[in-house]
Amino acid sequence: MMNRMNQNPSRKAADKMYRSFRVSDLPAEERPRERLLRLGPDVLSSQELLAIIISSGVAGMSAAHLAQILISKFGSLARIAEVSAEEIRRYVKGVGPAKIARLKACFEIARRIENEKKRNFFTEKDKKIITPDFAYAMVKSRLLDYKREHFFVVSLDSRNRITGIDEVSIGTLEASLVHPREAFNAAIMRNAAKIIIAHNHPSDDPEPSQDDISTTKRLKEAGSIIGIELIDHIIVCKSSFFSFKEKGIID
Fold first, then answer.
1. Does residue 47 lie in a domain region?
2. CATH number reported for the structural domain that contains residue 75 in this entry
3. What is the DSSP letter of 208?
4. Coil, strand or helix: which one is 166?
5. How many distinct structural domains can be found in the chain?
6. Alpha-carbon span 216 to 248, nearest angstrom
7. What are phi and psi of 211, to 5 degrees?
8. 3-state secondary structure of 85
9. Last residue of some domain: 59, 85, 119?
10. How far apart are CA 243 and CA 211, in angstroms?
C-alpha cells in the first residue's frame, strides 16, 4: 500500500513536468519547425508535424503534448482528418476553434492534392513513353523540392503505355537506397512488362553517382531474371535530367 501511495505522486509530477514542457525548451536546432526547414518535412514524425500546425500550447500543456494526445486518442492522421471539429473539441481539451480550423484546413489541402494526383494519374494513364524527355516530363513534378532522394517506378505495358507511377523508396540524407524487391513489387502489382525508374538529385546535379550506376545495373539484371525489362533510369533535376538509356549505360 505504501509503495503504491509513494509512486502516485512521482507519476503525477512526471506527467505535470511533461505537460508543462514547451517546444521552446528544446535547443533551437531540435525544434520541429527548425528541423523541417533544415531537413525537409519528410523527416519529421506525425506528432511533430501536428505540433507545427497547432503552433502553440495552452496553460500547462505544450503544442507537442496536444499533438501526442490527438494521435493517441484517434490513432492516426487519417482518423484525425475524418473526425468532426466537435469530436476533437470534446475529447482533446485545449484545442480550440483556431487550432481546429488550422488542422481542418491542412487536412482539406491534403485531400485536394490527393484528388489532383488522381486526376493527373488518369491523364497520364495509357500515355505512351516514346522518349526520355517524355519520361522526364511525366515524373518531374513528383520529384522536385525533396531534400532526400525519392525513387519512383513507372510501370509500362508491352507497348510502353503507362499503367502506374509509384513511389517505392526514400533514401537517407547521405545515401540513396533502393532494393530490387521494392522496385519490382510495384511493377508486378501493375502487371508491367517494362519499367522506368526515376529518382531526384537534391543537389540539382544530374550526373549519376557510382552508386546510381551500380544500382541500375543490379535492377537491370533482376528485371531480366523475373521477366520485367528495365528500359531506362531517369535522374531528375529542376531544369535538366540524365537518361541512362540515352547515354548508353543500359541497352
1. yes
2. 1.10.150
3. P
4. strand
5. 2
6. 12
7. -65, -40
8. helix
9. 119
10. 15
* CA gap 23, 200 in Å, rounded: 33
Q: Is 39 or 4 the better-scoring residue by pLDDT?
A: 39
Within a domain: 251: no
Does residue 55 share a domain with residue 163? Answer: no
Q: Minimal CA–CA distance to 194: which of 220, 174, 167, 166?
A: 220
Q: What is the DSSP letter of 55?
A: -
Residue that the C-alpha cell 500500500 belongs to: 1
Report if pTM > 0.90.
no
Q: How far is CA 211 from the centre of its chain?
A: 22
Q: Is position 249 within any domain?
A: no
Set of cell numbers at residue 135:
519520361
CA angle 117, 123, 127 (to 5 degrees): 125
Q: Are 28 and 16 in contact (CB under 8 A)?
A: no
Cell of 86: 466537435
Following DSSP, what letter does each residue of 195-210 receive, concatenated? EEEEEE-TTS--SPPH
The answer to whether 137 and 128 are in contact (CB under 8 A) is: no
| Same domain as 69, residue 8 | yes
**Nearest alpha carbon to residue 230 among 189, 199, 184:** 184
205 neighbors 237 (Cβ within 8 angstroms): yes
> pLDDT tens digit string along 11-66?
454 444 444 556 566 666 678 888 888 888 878 889 999 999 988 877 777 888 88
